[in-house]
Design brief:
76% helix, mainly alpha
Amino acid sequence: MKMNSKNVLTVIGVLNIIQGIGFFIGAETLTEQSFPSELLVGGGLVVGTAMHWPLSIACIVIGIIILSTRSLEMKDAKKVLLSIGIAYLFFLINGLLQHLTTPVNVPMPAIGLIAFISILSFYTALKKPPKP
């Protein structure tokens, strides 16, 4: 697969949708794995599970929006990719801060996916087009 803007936007959009579906289906399991058991008593599990649902919908919506940008001209697609890279860099910083400074256990696969999307977005946005 060629790493052009359209293909990269497709991959990132699809990954967001898949991640959103996973967050929705696995909300309770993710909550149990991410928080210490003492935080899950007294309704904590229900609240944590319920909070994953809007996150899942947000991921799906973001994925749909990203997929809708695939037909943009290259200059505009690169702006979108740069914005995605910046946004995911903030996600990455937040995830690492939570993982390192709180009792929250942010799953390493999630950190890896966030880093991958950020790096891929920056790389594609900043690479020079091939010379004709």
